[in-house]
Every structure is written in C-alpha cells, then in structure tokens.
Design the sequence.
C-alpha cells in the first residue's frame, strides 16, 4: 500500500508540473487529466493520480500532522 501526501500545483508546462509539499517541491508527470495552478493533487511514483479538493487536502494534511509527530509542516 502506498500513501500520498497532498501537494499543490505551482506550475504546469505541458505534461510536467511543479508540485509543492510541506518543505519540498517536486517535478511530476501529468497525464491527460486537466490540472491547473492551484489544484491539489495526489502523486504516486512521480505521476499525478488524482485531483482533490482544497478541503480534502487540508483534512489529509491535518491527519498527517496529528498522527505523525515526525511530520513537520
């Protein structure tokens, strides 16, 4: 099982996007699903696998911080 931390798209250039996470940014591959700057996404192995709402992202990040003392936002 894989776990994904929500990230926010900061830049899109064709099928590549820059996603920001707490404390890090990453270049990822975007398939055919439309994404735009400001979208929250889940990424697995460098590929966007889903777009989620801002509320879902906030709830997920809150759960990570409450349940993992080593996870620092």
Sequence:
């Amino acid at each position: 099982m894989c776990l994904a931390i929500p990230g926010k798209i900061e830049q899109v250039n064709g099928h590549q996007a820059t996603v920001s996470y707490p404390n890090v940014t990453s270049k990822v591959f975007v398939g055919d699903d439309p994404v735009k700057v400001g979208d929250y996404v889940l990424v697995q192995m460098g590929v966007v696998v889903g777009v989620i709402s801002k509320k879902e992202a906030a709830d997920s990040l809150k759960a990570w911080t409450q349940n993992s003392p080593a996870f620092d936002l």
Residues 7-67 form a domain with the SH3 type barrels. fold (CATH 2.30.30.140). The chain has a mean pLDDT of 88.
